[in-house]
Model the fold of this input.
Amino acid sequence: MRKIVAIANQKGGVGKTTTAINLGAGVAAADRKALLIDMDPQSNLTSGLGLDSAALEGTIYTALIEGMPLKKLVRATELSGLEAIPSSRNLTGAELELVDQPEREYRLRGLLEPLVGLYDYIIIDCPPSLGLLTVNALVAAESVLIPLQCEFFALEGMSELMSTVKKVRSAFNSMLSIEGIVFTMVDERSNLTAQVMAEVKEFFPGAVLDSSVPRNIRLAEAPSFGKPILLYDIRSRGAEAYLSLTRELLKHEAQSAR
Done:
């Protein structure tokens, strides 16, 4: 089994990085090997795993722009079976630097080819935009997982994201599919949450995953300690939610492999 999943939503603050880190940790906890790739110049995934990009010799920027093999950039994390390729602020200028490059949309896909057989899951954390970095992630991925916060403007921009996925599928990656939509920062006591969830399910029938992620203080605290929630507080509701999401995705993968 192997899977390359891009976690994308051009809206910021919806839990993309939290989902990437903790889904990767869940995969590793299930005795599979996972690689996380930080494609966001904010490098929150990097710091959220306790890695210091300033102290590293290379990051994803070095690979995309200078052609350094990704294998040289892989870093271990505290969790056995979970590895990561870090990002840095240098990535901010990568989109401009890639503009004139041949086959610029395929840059990440080509770099990933030597690593594909080494991991069960490769999870790509995209920036909050639909620029060239996100397009590279979607071209390299087999599916896209969309975290969606249960707020008033939840659907804002979703049509644009779906349009981008459709264009990528048509022009660069015919195999790209929607892994699913996962609700994040869910407040079950809120009427608005119930309304948003019902609305999204109506607009995207069959795309919403059963698992959802609640608002959880321990989950919010974990990145500041450089740990996935499974290492920070495995008994928290946030840990339970991401273990449930991991099980759901692994079950989908097993069913599709039959």
